Amino acid sequence: MMKNRKSNWALLAPMYVFTILFVALPILYMFLLSFLTRAEVWGVDFTFTLDNYKRIGEPLYLNTFVESLKLAFLSTLLVMLIGYPYGYFMARMSAVWKKRMLLLIMIPFWTSALIRLYGWIIVFRTNGVLDKLLMGLHITEEPLKLLYTYPAVVVGMVYSLLPFMILSVYSSAEKLDFTLAEAARDLGASSFKAFWTVSFKLTLPGLLSGVILSFIPSMGLFFIADILGGNKIVLVGSVIQEQLTKGRNQPFAAALSAVLMVLTTLMIRIYRKVTGTSELEGLV
Amino acid sequence: MKTKKWCFVYVGVITAITYIPILVTVVYSFNESKISSVWEGFSLKWYAELFQDRDLREALINSLILAVLSCFFAVIIGTSGALGMYKKKSRLNDAVGYISMLPIMIPEIILGMVFLSVFSLMGLPFGMVTLVIAHTTFCVPYVYSMVKARLVGMDKSLEEAALDLGASGVRVFFDVTLPLIAPAIWSGVMLAFAMSFDDVVISIFVTGPRVNTLPVKIYTKLKTGVTPEINALATLMLAITILLLIGAHLIGKKKNK
Q: Which of A266, B174, B210, B218 has its CA at a distance of 20 to 30 angstroms from the CA of residue B229?
């Protein structure tokens, strides 16, 4: 018994040490940092202040938060509308097609996120592929100048986040017994009602998990706004990055991150309450 | 029957759209012209330029080293952690398990910000060491959660039977437990490797002035201006990914038979 316990601690030790040292303590330090003052030249002064949080309340930064949330909501909504049917339909395919579709989804998912975004630059740029196509078909007369606009950023976001939603919904819908919906129809429910009361309810955990998996990263993906939006669209992520690099203001960046972190944890909490599970479906 | 057709059409159209930027990149990588909106004929000159680019090659090697090291540490930490927590459940274990998952649950930018400030507080020089630490934190959750899920579904009696037959604890681990959880470790590593190899956000914050990873290098190139060299690089990376995935797919098929 003694020996067993000892060996168990040996197994746990790397995980405990690593998690505490490089995850827990750094995150705690971030919260501490958010109450400190920026030093004159470089680094941090250990003087307590609430100024960093007050500064977030300034219209300039508050606006950035609101804009980021708006973009995250819009992207997540679109991802949901496109991804839910995709994942749901995929789960209804034959085993062979399921495998093929998974492969097709995984290929873009595994190629560099940057490179996929780069493809959109070529498509969207003035006189790029899209402009040529639309003007060639005489749908538009002039270049649309889509690159470095809001819609371009939304497309980039939706594109990057879609696989998360599809895989979450798919893994939930795959477990679904489709005969349940058929039974509901046999008992006289319309096909919409059968879907809504049976299938949709049962795939809700997957959908919610997909929503969280798209919403959370979307708040921090500053490089999408950077590459496809130029400098016009500023998100919380961009502000944090700017404060760290150009502004050299670690405490303010920490305060922004802390607010973001609290928002994120709240969402995960709500997810757990609603679905009653602790794991996010399709996360890994 | 009719609904099934609709499903295929919908899935097909969406999939086709997701491949547009990829196909465009591949096509233009063979474009003679430097301005990517004009097609001036087939050429391999960007590939030639790519192979002569020392910076990019160095960045590629850095990225590979980084991904391999991070996965190595993640396997040790994640697997042993999952095993230890599976053997004895406690609230403390649950808490540590939860915290260890945080790096892939919170927005990447927070992690980058956290590591930048902590490493500068500790006075660690920014470079490969800081990169490996940061990447290991988000590689561990993939291995840990995969192995954990596998252990939950595992038949405990197999280990017990081996113990009853007189095998030592170590022998049971290597002959029974490890072969059972190996597929889970492997899929965790594949995901972790892909995430590490592709990471921009966290790497930007913890990389040093002299160490570049491939995604960071590509990012700076994209920001400063477009070079068709990137098209060639993208095409090559895509080809490798497709080959690897199809290979894995075929191996899986064979095993199933």
A: B210
Task: Tell me, yes or no, whether A239 lies in a domain.
Answer: yes
- Which residues in chain B touch residue A20, judged by CB atoms under 8 angstroms apart? 96, 99
Which of A76, A112, A34 has its CA nearest to residue A212? A76
Predicted TM-score of the model (pTM)? 0.86
Question: Closest-CA residue in chain B for A19?
Answer: B100
> Domains of chain B (ranges plus CATH)?
53-225 (1.10.3720.10)
Read off the pLDDT of residues A221-264 as tens digits, 9 standing for 90 and up. Answer: 888 888 888 777 888 888 898 888 888 889 999 999 999 999 88
Q: Which residues contact A39 (CB under 8 A, 6 or more apart)?
A: A45
Task: Please say whether the beta carbons of B218 and A112 come within 8 A.
Answer: yes
Distance CA(A25)–CA(A20), nearest Å, equals 6
Which parts of chain A have pLDDT scores under 70?
A: 1-6, 42, 277-284
Q: DSSP E strands: which ranges in B9-107?
A: none
- Domain range for residue A268? 72-275
Centroid of chain to Cα B111:
17
* Among the partner residues A7, A120, A279, nearest to B169 by beta-carbon distance: A7
Residue A38's DSSP bridge partners are A44
> Each residue of B215-224: pLDDT tens digit?
998 888 887 7
Looking at beta carbons, which residues of chain A come within 8 Å of B223?
Answer: 226-227
Q: Specify whether the CB–CB gap between B134 and A16 falls below 8 A.
A: no
- The rounded distance, in Å, linking the Cα atoms of B103 and B135 is 10
Which residues on A lie below 8 Å from B117 (Cβ)?
26, 29-30, 33, 44, 250, 253-254
